[in-house]
């Protein structure tokens, strides 16, 4: 078994320990130990916030609009479509936008490359990776990371820059790309770069991360810290919204605007081509559902809601980098199970290596944010960021 597969298996096991699926003496003991570490982690988090709040540690300022989009939990809250709609609206109202991402699981500089740079320049300092300069797509998903690549593909007029040091990435976006508005992707906890506004996402299916901080639960910081947010999106809502959760969040943050939204499927698209299909194509279709996301059940339920019959499921760890052999094996197994097509998510599709097989369609579902409430407040918020009156917008 490869090291990558061992790490993914460990991640999967730990998640089952955290949510209580794993029973027995050792999982119970592990949960007790992790709870103790969570208490220590909570102290560290709060001390860090206090140091920034009282300006003992000063954040960097870049002299332009900086807005963060993030959450209080790890895992899939549906952040990428929210970043996309936010960036698109800002760009359409005249801002020169750059999305700054840390590029989770993107390709790192190799040891050999680091040593060559050390020898030739005397130091190891890499420039930010420009996934898109706002005019053209410059990197692939392997180098950029799947989420930055997906954002760059869907936002042709928005720059996307990847670097763990987002202060450096922000300076580059301003100086080299002429940007005047920066969006910190997954930036709620990134205090090193000062930001004027915070957008926080709360996943309706698991809003409080199991009620524990890392490593016992999925919370990055106590839920009460959502009071820092100026705008809250409740994601993955049902048709009727989430009035009880909205009221809970309102008690934690009396001043933030709160929007309820859902991830609405729009159409189907060929992974290896340009052909698109309407969603009603799924009705009565036998499909193989393949995904490598934090909550695969939500994707599978969506397929069944459109009338598809799932005859084969293949779930990989979140952000799994697919090999060509894995895709070939999946195709073969799907055909054996009588599937009419293989369905995956857009986030996973960018990590599919090209396979020259046409005996079964390989399709992804395009999903966009659809606001159920708070859309007027959101657009007013955008207008204020752009220094426009709501009427002018």
TrEMBL record:
**Keywords, sorted A to Z:** ATP-binding, Kinase, Lipid A biosynthesis, Lipid biosynthesis, Lipid metabolism, Nucleotide-binding, Transferase
Q: Which reaction does it catalyse?
A: a lipid A disaccharide + ATP = a lipid IVA + ADP + H(+)
Q: What is its EC number?
A: 2.7.1.130
Superkingdom is Bacteria
User: What is the recorded function of this protein according to its Swiss-Prot or TrEMBL entry?
Assistant: Transfers the gamma-phosphate of ATP to the 4'-position of a tetraacyldisaccharide 1-phosphate intermediate (termed DS-1-P) to form tetraacyldisaccharide 1,4'-bis-phosphate (lipid IVA).
Looking up NCBIfam families in the UniProt record yields: lpxK (TIGR00682)
- Protein name, as recorded: Tetraacyldisaccharide 4'-kinase
């Amino acid at each position: 078994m490869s090291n990558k597969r061992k790490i993914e298996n460990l991640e999967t096991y730990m998640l089952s320990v955290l949510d209580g699926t794993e029973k027995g003496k050792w999982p119970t003991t592990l949960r007790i130990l992790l709870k103790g570490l969570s208490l220590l982690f909570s102290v560290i988090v709060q001390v860090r916030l206090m140091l920034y709040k009282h300006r003992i540690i000063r954040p960097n300022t870049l002299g332009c609009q900086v807005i963060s989009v993030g959450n209080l939990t790890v895992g899939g809250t549906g952040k990428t479509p929210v970043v996309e709609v936010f960036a698109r609206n800002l760009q359409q109202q005249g801002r020169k936008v750059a999305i700054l991402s840390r590029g989770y699981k993107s390709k790192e500089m190799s040891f050999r490359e680091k040593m060559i740079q050390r020898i030739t320049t005397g130091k190891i300092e890499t420039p930010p990776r420009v996934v898109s300069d706002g005019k053209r797509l410059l990197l692939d998903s392997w180098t950029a990371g799947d989420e930055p690549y997906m954002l760059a593909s869907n936002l042709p007029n928005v720059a996307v820059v990847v670097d763990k040091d987002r202060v450096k990435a922000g300076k580059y976006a301003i100086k080299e790309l002429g940007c005047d508005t920066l969006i910190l992707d997954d930036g709620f906890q990134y205090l090193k770069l000062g930001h004027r506004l915070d957008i926080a996402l709360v996943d309706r299916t698991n809003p409080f991360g199991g009620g524990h901080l890392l490593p016992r639960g999925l919370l990055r910081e106590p839920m009460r810290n959502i009071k820092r947010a100026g705008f809250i999106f409740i994601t993955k809502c049902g048709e009727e919204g989430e009035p009880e959760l909205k009221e809970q969040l309102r008690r934690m943050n009396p001043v933030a605007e709160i929007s309820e939204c859902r991830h609405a499927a729009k159409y189907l698209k060929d992974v290896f081509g340009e052909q698109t299909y309407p969603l009603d194509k799924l009705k009565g279709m036998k499909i193989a559902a393949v995904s490598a996301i934090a909550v695969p059940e939500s994707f599978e339920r969506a397929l069944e809601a459109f009338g598809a019959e799932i005859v084969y499921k293949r779930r990989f760890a979140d952000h799994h980098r697919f090999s060509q052999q894995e895709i070939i094996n999946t195709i073969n197994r799907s055909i054996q199970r009588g599937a009419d097509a293989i369905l995956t998510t857009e986030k996973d599709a960018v990590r599919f290596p090209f396979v020259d097989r046409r005996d079964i369609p390989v399709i992804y579902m395009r999903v966009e944010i659809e606001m159920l409430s708070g859309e007027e407040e959101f657009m007013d918020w955008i207008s204020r960021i752009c220094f426009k009156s709501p009427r002018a917008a």
